[in-house]
Amino acid sequence: EKKSEVKIFEIQQKIERLKNIKLGLYEDGDYEKSMEIAKMIITIAEKNDINIILNEEKKFINATQKKISPKKPIGEKIEELKKLRHSYYSSEKYEEAIQISKMLIEFASEANLDETVKIEENFIALLQEKINQKSSKVESFESLKDLELVDQKQPFSPKIKEKSEKDLDTLLSAKQIKIKTDKVKLEEEKENIEVEKQEFKSNEESSIGEQRKFIEEREIFKQEKINLEEEIGNFNQEKLMLEEVKKNLNKEKREFESNKEFFMEEQCKFKEEREIFKQEKIILEQEKENFNQIRQMFEEIKKKLL
Q1: Any residues with CB less than 8 A from the CB of 160 and at least 6 apart, and which?
Q2: Using one digit for the tens of pLDDT, what is the confidence trace for 138-169?
Q3: Which residues contact residue 13 at a Cβ distance below 8 angstroms, ignoring those fewer than 6 apart?
Q4: 112 phi and psi, to 5 degrees?
Q5: pTM (two decimals)
Q6: Do 48 and 92 fall into the same domain?
Q7: The predicted structure's pLDDT at residue 231
Q8: Cα–Cα distance between 306 and 302 in angstroms, integer?
């Protein structure tokens, strides 16, 4: 059990360190690398069945990806909404078309497209008349001229207007399926965005706490880094001193080897000289003995003479 607890603690520590690194990269604007760290955390969480961490990191990646994803130009958004609005209109879904027109007015106002705002306001009035059943098909067709659904340069008779309106419905019906599909996808994406928005808000406070904790730990890390750099400097100084000692030692070793060789030569000479000395000593002893014998003989002769 103790080994298991130690392992869990080590995993938690590893995840916390990676989270701190991830948040640091995110704060520095390095979103790609922060997502790579999040993927590393996901791998650890998957191996150890830590679903809470797994879901948090997936949400982080999704939110970061959306942050760095290029946004569509407002003109492109307006064109897409116009197509969707026409689809609702041709399907006689006037309430939905009004909502899309209101969205168009918001986008157009942001982009200072006053003409588009005016057209959409007129279109909303037209649809309101449709809903209240106060306008005729001809009036509807005349009002649609502002929306560029027909060529305004052509002279229209009532029959031509009616035929053009039917042709318009035919042309639009070919795009209805795709537009409806796009609408469903748009609604799904909108719902997902709302869900993620709520989840992001709920995690915002904890994220702020984690960021503060990271800032504190980063300051500690900076101080530890400074201390480590000082220790590295001291170590390098000691290393240089050790290298100098090593050089001197090698020099002394070489001198010792040289002296040793000289000593061996001197020792050999000494042995040779000692042997010679021994021989000379033996000879000297013999000479001494001979001298003693001669002296003894001399003493005897001296006695006889006396």
Answers
A1: 154
A2: 444 455 545 544 444 344 445 444 544 444 45
A3: none
A4: 60, 35
A5: 0.28
A6: no
A7: 84
A8: 6
